[in-house]
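Reference record
================
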Amino acid sequence: MTDVTVLTPTDKRDALRAKIDAAERRNAERSLADQAREAASAAADYTREHPLTVISGAVVVGLLLGLATRPGRRVATRAAGAVGVAASGAASSAASGVKGLTARGSSTMSTLVSDAAMAYVMKLIDDVVDAARSGQDRIEDLGDEAEATARRARRKAAHALGTAADTTRDAARKSRRKTSRVVRDTVKKVKG
């Protein structure tokens, strides 16, 4: 026959404590440098396995941090505006080039083809400019939203601090009143 050992709750608690103590001892024996080396090794392995993910994440985090500041939003706005100006300049250049070709007496067919190509290129450039403006608007909205959230958090913190200060002042007043009453009553009893 087999002996079945029934553990009491105290025995279970003691066994769990022993396991926790053993784990804490193992962790205490590992130095901080060992833990840092393991973390760095794990990060390096992940980076080797997923380089595009890591690079994309770093770029996104950098952009978001940059956009959270007023100078970063200003730079993004200027960059988006510069893209629009560059695209418009390229379109003007292309248009004048096509007009120059047609002015030199090319055939009617080539003029039609060049006009169609020019219209297509102009449409593409307009789409790029619109996308840049849309991106610029989204960046500004994101920055404004982050700024508003920071303002709300600051306002809530100031309110909480004010409330805590008021509560502390009230408690001090009540304490002062009670203390003065106790002192007054004690003096009356002693003189009494």
Summary: The first helix runs from residue 9 to 29. The mean pLDDT is 76.
